Amino acid sequence: MARNFPADAKMQHFFEEQYDKETAARLQFHFDRKSGKTRRSTAEDPATRAATAGMPRINPFEFAIRQKREEDEALNEIIEQARARKQETAEMRAVDDKSKAVLYDGFSREGRGRARYLRERHDRAPDDKFTYPVVSSWEYGWKINDEMGSYGRPQHARTTTINDTFYTRNGISSIPGAD
After folding, report:
1. Taking a C-beta distance cutoff of 8 angstroms, is the pair 51, 57 a contact?
2. Engineering a disulfide at 178: which of 16, 18, 89, 173 sits with its beta carbon 3.0 to 4.6 angstroms away?
3. What gap in Å lies between CA 177 and CA 179, rounded to an integer?
4. What is the number of structural domains in the chain?
5. Sign of the dihedral defined by the CA atoms of residues 67, 69, 72, 78, in that order
6. Which residues contact 136 (CB under 8 A, 6 or more apart)?
7. CA distance from start to end of the chain
8. Are 81 and 136 in the same domain?
9. Contact, 82 vs 126, CB < 8 A?
10. In this structure, are 80 and 99 located in the same domain?
């Protein structure tokens, strides 16, 4: 079987030009280095100077440190608000009596008891179970129900239409989460 890479003359010409440019750049670098010339830095390059004209110089290390400080301050503010509101020092809130009653009702093998308790606990939002975001990924949606709670479900939502028409009706559940 014959190889057909590069597939056409246009691609061959492109690769040939790239090879020639790279070879010329390497030779130029070698001759400049041999003669004692140093390469101009990107700050001295006229094209770079024109593109960055009027832009403030930012040190990436200082920017990252400042960004981290701001994130830590925001997280500490959330933690302090949660502790002041509930006067709780533990990161996880106590379980309510209704959930505890489910825990001791039946056997896990039957889908009751501990299994049902864990399923119900898993379905609750993290901000209902914890006083502050324990993991950094929780910060993005923390207390989102307070902000979005008034919107509710869209009036013309199509979820039931999709469930009724898209998923099969052969008795095998293909809907995610349906058991």
Report:
1. no
2. 173
3. 6
4. 2
5. negative
6. none
7. 51
8. yes
9. no
10. no
